[in-house]
Amino acid sequence: MEAARLGHVDVLTFLLTSGASANVINFEGRTALHLTVNRQLLAVDANVELGDANGQTPLMLAVKLGSVEMTKLLIENSPNSIHAIDKEGDNVLGIAIYKWQLEIFPLLLDCDIKTNLSNGAATTPLMLAATKGHVEIIKILLDNGAEVNETTWNGHTPLTFAAESRQVEAARALLDHGAHENSHGVNSAPLATAAQRGHVEMIKLLLMHNANINLQDSDGDSALHRSSVQSVSRKNASVKKRMKDGHSALHSAAEEGRVDVIRLLLQRGARMDTVNKAKWTPLMMAAKRGHRQTVNFLVRNGASLVWKNNDDQNAAGDAKLNNRTDVLGLLKSEEPEVTKFCASSNTKRQRTL
């Protein structure tokens, strides 16, 4: 084994012809073939498909190292070894993608390897390529039969993985090959995923491909609810649409501390003191999170300071419970002025109506 690791071919040949076993394993579960691939070992029937302690075969290690010749030699001697899966659920195709082994990639595809074979995390090679942004590999996989809309157990598609990873060009390639822009599962609508992460370019791309801005996932969540991005808020979305818990887009924007989005939503008709099922207002959400600027904006625009939620707390009470002393001070100091402001603001609203 040491002779194999050090590349001493003459010593290795002598040991093998003297009866040494090619399949003896070390403490890592590796054989001499894991340490070096050569024709001397293969000639004495070394087990090509034997995995080490992690289930990794010599072929997997050869692919990981990027050795084209070693990969060819192992495939020639055991074509079935391309289908092996290690204890992490990885296969040689996934390893080639992860390690960006472009020279080895075609060798594996020529062996009719399954392009939709998932790993232990239920992700396919195409999903992994989308996550990594390997556009060239994405196109090769799709041309070789990979399913562009394959889903994981929770409904994630390759497009979802691209959206999660900010891989705009990968997403573009998938969409050009027929990816469903509105496919979704558990918290996994591509547009909502991109919106939650603030990926403006990804959002624009998905909207260009007619992604539904009001599409809700299994939690009743839509892109507008999860987004603090102006490009989403300006689209033809309903600002009054709610999640299952009664949460509105205004609640989400206040919770995130996004004054710019709050302003846009209010301009488009969102109600300042809209409440969810727990009777929480947007002001309470902002106060709980300690968003001073947001609280100040809401207060100055007529948000109620006296409204109480199901826990019998108003905005000041929520700030106090969450140790938001800065916000609490603001709410207390503004209270008298706000009462007058609300009155005048309501009068203006009545005149407008």
TrEMBL record:
Name the UniProt key words of this record, in alphabetical order.
Answer: ANK repeat, Repeat, Signal
Is this entry keyworded S-adenosyl-L-methionine? no
What is the organism field in this record?
Phytophthora cactorum
Name used for this protein in its record: Uncharacterized protein
Regions that span the bilayer? none
Q: Where is the signal peptide?
A: 1-22
Q: Which InterPro entries match?
A: Ankyrin_rpt, Ankyrin_rpt-contain_sf, Dendritic_Spine_Reg/Scaffold
* Sequence ranges of the ANK repeats: 1-27, 54-80, 121-153, 154-186, 186-218, 245-277, 278-310
Q: Name one Pfam family in it.
A: Ank_2
